[in-house]
Design a protein that fits this description.
This protein has 252 residues and is of the alpha+beta class. The protein contains 10 helices and 15 strands.
Amino acid sequence: MPTATTRLFTLALAFSGCTAAPDDVCVAERKLSANRLSANELVTNRLAANALLTEALPDVALTSSSIAAAVAPEALADEFVQSVLEYMVSCALVPGQHVEVVIDGDVVVYDGALGLAPQWGAEDGTCDAACRGWVSACLIARTNAAGESVQISLLGDRPGLDPSVEESIVFDIEEATYFGDLFGATKAMYACLPTGATGPARTCGTDGADCPIAVLGECDEVCDDAGCRDPHGFAHAETITVNVRGVAAECE
């Protein structure tokens, strides 16, 4: 089971009809509201079918000039491609790194955040196997079956995924652990579950029908010190666990 260190990525949803909450939860809520929050609503099925990761970007640096040369302007006009690129940059690069793209004549800036593969953003940067594993896990974790905004906390064994006290207090329910490879000719998207869980409804829908993410059972059964193993026996060391919010708190 991966070490559960946390880093928050959330959506700007308003919660109503909440129950009264302990003081520590309300303090955490107020501190989180001051942070920059990001969306996690990549549509799961569309990510599985998208060719940006397999055709345009695997062999080029994640920089403004390389993307301009590798991705056709008409492709960048697609809003889902824009979302994938935005999330990819935020997953891979650190704050201070950014990518600029021209969309319909306007310059759009995508900022780095988690820093899971900052070397990819160098002028001669490349995305090696570990980079692909971390970026894949990050993108898979940030999908949503219905394309809806749901607050989540990302957990993983990387410096950019360090915990905050507030996140740990507010996001205290383990949803699933995600891993895979979105850069290969055949996209591999996997999840495993905490003990007793029935499925990741956020990413796969309530019934899990036709979900492109293969749910492999409980994490205790498929993960060990080497990582989480896919159906072929390969151990993915780059995994991200998602925690979701517990009971929404009504705070004054």
